[in-house]
Design goal:
Helix content: under 10%
Structural class: mainly beta
Radius of gyration: 24 Å
Strand order of the largest sheet: 1-2-3-4-5-6-7-8-9-10-11-12-13-14
Largest sheet: 14 strands, antiparallel
Length: 212
């Protein structure tokens, strides 16, 4: 009975890791480090602010004490709606927020080689993640809006094998559909303990060798 529920599940777990790493780069900006050198052709400041005709801040460019270069843009009410950040190690992210400051979209590129985008609901709960690993393995994960657990995952392995995985309310892998590298399709059904209970194709045991 088909029982190959490993590579895509790992990809989905890794996609969650991408979202976590992306969130880690979205900490609140701190005070920028004071400049110590001066060049007459260079403008040096701890923070640059862009204001509208009323003097209200609409954009800010600064470097935090942790070495994060951050460009933040605000709406007419002063709410932080978009942020572009580059960390000291080169990781970069773009975050979009609603009027309450809740993240809605995060796009990131990390020195680890994993890239992706995460989408959230109005309360900041993750709903979907699209992620690509360093080996070009790609996966799309959809989450339950109530529990936050993964409910469906679609992925393509680095070898080109596509697979679809469906999870129950507890986040357990229950159904998998895939196409192997040789073109053969397969389906696997699992119980709540992860044990295969049905699948196609069914591999019959080889016939016993008859004794001469």
């Amino acid at each position: 009975m088909l029982n190959s529920r490993n590579w895509l599940y790992a990809a989905i777990v890794a996609a969650g890791g991408f979202a976590g790493g992306l969130t880690a780069t979205q900490f609140a900006p701190g005070d920028a480090l004071a400049a110590r050198h001066h060049n007459p052709r260079t403008i040096i400041a701890e923070e640059f602010r862009l204001v509208d005709d009323k003097g209200d801040r609409r954009a800010s460019l600064q470097v935090t004490p942790r070495g994060m270069a951050a460009l933040m843009m605000f709406d007419g009410e002063g709410n932080d709606r978009a942020e572009f950040r580059v960390a000291r190690d080169g990781s970069s992210s773009l975050g979009l927020y609603n009027s309450k400051g809740t993240r809605r979209v995060l796009l990131g590129d990390f020195v680890s080689g994993r890239d992706g985008i995460a989408i959230y609901d109005n309360s900041g709960r993750q709903l979907a993640t699209l992620s690509v690993a360093p080996d070009n393995q790609a996966s799309l994960t959809l989450y339950d809006a109530n529990s936050g657990r993964a409910r469906a995952g679609l992925g393509v392995a680095a070898s080109g094998e596509p697979a679809l995985v469906l999870f129950d309310q507890q986040g357990r892998d229950r159904v998998e559909i895939h196409v192997a590298a040789n073109g053969n399709p397969g389906i696997a059904l699992a119980d709540a303990n992860g044990k295969s209970i049905a699948g196609l194709p069914v591999h019959e045991a080889p016939a016993p060798t008859q004794q001469q």
